[in-house]
Amino acid sequence: ERVDPAAAANPDLHLNRATLLQYLEQFQAALEGLSRAAELAPGWDEPRKRHGNLVEFLSRLCGLLANKGKLRGKRRRGLAGP
Fold first, then answer.
1. For the chain, which end, N or C, has fewer CB atoms within 10 Å of the first or last residue's CB respectively?
2. Which domains occur in the chain, in start order?
């Protein structure tokens, strides 16, 4: 983007960067990149699909973190293994 300002309008660039940021666990920046890619290419469903998947993942993750330690014995043993 710094070398070629026209690249800032490329939705593929934003989608690829958002994917990288997701793997780096920089979720806020990844969501922003996916939103920008969706703005730049309104007819392209992939950025919106990935944005929804990431939001769903983060909400499930928050739910699991909120319920940490609130499992009953049998379920906790099942998760922990033998």
1. C
2. 5-67 (1.25.40.10)
